[in-house]
Design a protein that fits this description.
The protein is mostly helical. It is about 80% helix and about 0% strand. Keywords: Membrane, Transmembrane, Transmembrane helix.
Length: about 425
């Protein structure tokens, strides 16, 4: 007999948030990456592989371990907790020992596996508990993942300043262990749920042969690639833009940097809010549409529109400033919305029995985009013909990629789906 209520908030929502708010702190990498590089006496570019590997192992572990999550969420929640906490604490140990490969092993590989399993674990459970509002439910959990950076970044900065970089990793390892173990203890399938082995039509090998699966995969991959390409250059795009404004003309480099620090910090904080709202909003919106693809169509059309607005706004000043801010905020919202809408889109086409497997396999796109998005932006910036506005050169490229993503999801929407898994309007 348990003293805890056996309802969807206690058994699905709370554990989902405990898990996702913990593992979502992977996006706090920018808070301490320079400090790690300085401590280990290597270049920031070298240490950046720690984050890239974490995202790669996230996607790959989700792709390969989805069936395990399908069978036993208690086991997957525990494995995720162990891998994530050991990886986070091991990163601190590696820094203390000045062992550079340790950062790649622990933050990249070990923690990355914990990320992938932990990301998948609560998703199907939420869809089972909230069968009539699946989009909203998955949006809640994935919004927690998106908000983690906004919550943890100031905490990390405080701990680093007060106790040092290495101790920050140790302290938060204990905090995350408590949070994730809480999620492990609370998470539970709805009463009466019985695991059914997915059909042969939805195993990994069969899925990889379906054009429908690849249509979804491509759209999801391009949304992440475009989002990362823009987000990775966000600070520099803003610096280029603000440098053109009359009020900053004639300032020295140090004066300019000091003057815009608060502005850029505010923009990045608002970005995090739009990302989280997009995760919850677009997934919830899909609950009220006949087809889940409609949310993706809105995301891609919106992204193309705000990129085009920035491209056609030739005036220097407030018009361009607002166009760029609209682009950054709304693309961040669409980037987050793409993640939260994915599980219910897969449910629509392949059914809920295999949703952890199909979701995990599709997250391989995240692994590849995590490597290609930043590299795409760096390549475009370094080869831009106008070096004075080289960061703006990324915008036309991602506009074209968003158009390809829109075409891909439009083709997916042309496929008929069983009535029983179509979202109810």
């Amino acid at each position: 007999m348990t003293l805890l209520p056996d309802n969807r908030w206690v058994r699905a929502v709370i554990p989902a948030l405990l898990l996702h708010i913990s593992i979502g702190t992977v996006y706090c990498w920018s808070v301490f990456k320079q400090l790690i590089a300085d401590e280990l006496k290597v270049s920031p570019g070298t240490i950046e592989w720690g984050f890239s590997l974490a995202i790669f192992f996230l996607g790959m572990s989700a792709a390969f371990l989805g069936p395990m999550v399908e069978r036993d969420i208690k086991k997957s929640a525990l494995i995720s907790t162990i891998c994530f906490v050991v990886g986070f604490a091991g990163t601190g140990v590696s820094i203390a020992m000045h062992f550079v490969p340790g950062v790649f092993i622990f933050y990249g590989a070990v923690m990355g596996v914990g990320l992938g399993i932990g990301y998948l674990t609560p998703v199907k459970n939420l869809m089972l508990w909230f069968s009539s509002n699946k989009g909203m439910a998955t949006g809640i959990a994935v919004a927690g993942f998106g908000l983690a950076k906004a919550i943890a970044s100031p905490v990390m900065e405080f701990l680093i300043e007060s106790f040092g970089l290495v101790n920050m990793f140790y302290i938060l390892s204990v905090v995350y262990a408590i949070m994730m173990l809480g999620g492990f203890l609370l998470i539970k399938r709805p009463q009466g749920y019985v695991y059914e082995k997915p059909s042969s039509a939805t195993n990994r090998r069969a899925l990889l042969k379906k054009p429908l699966f690849w249509g979804i995969w491509i759209a999801f991959y391009l949304n992440i690639t475009c989002g990362l390409a823009l987000i990775s250059q966000e600070k520099d795009i803003l610096k280029d833009l603000l440098h053109q404004l009359p009020q900053y003309a004639g300032m020295s480099a140090s004066e300019f940097s000091l003057a815009i620090t608060g502005i850029i910090g505010t923009v990045l904080a608002v970005d995090a809010v739009f990302n989280a709202v997009g995760r919850l909003g677009f997934a919830t919106l899909s609950d009220h549409m006949k087809r889940r693809e409609s949310s993706y169509k809105i995301i891609f059309i919106m992204s193309i529109a705000v990129c085009a607005l920035q491209l056609v706004t030739n005036s220097i000043g407030n018009a361009l400033l607002w166009a760029v801010l609209a682009m950054l905020f709304l693309i961040n919202a669409g980037y987050g919305g793409g993640f939260s809408t994915l599980p219910v889109l897969l449910d629509q086409h392949f059914g809920i029995k295999a949703v952890s497997t199909t979701h995990g396999l599709t997250l391989s796109a995240w692994a590849i985009a995590g490597l290609s998005g930043n590299q795409l932006a760096s390549f475009v910036v370094s080869h831009a013909s106008d070096q004075a506005h080289r960061y703006a050169a990324v915008i036309p490229v991602i506009t074209v990629l968003y158009a390809v993503a829109l075409l891909s999801i439009w083709l997916v929407s042309r496929v008929n789906v069983p009535h029983k898994v179509v979202a109810q309007s």
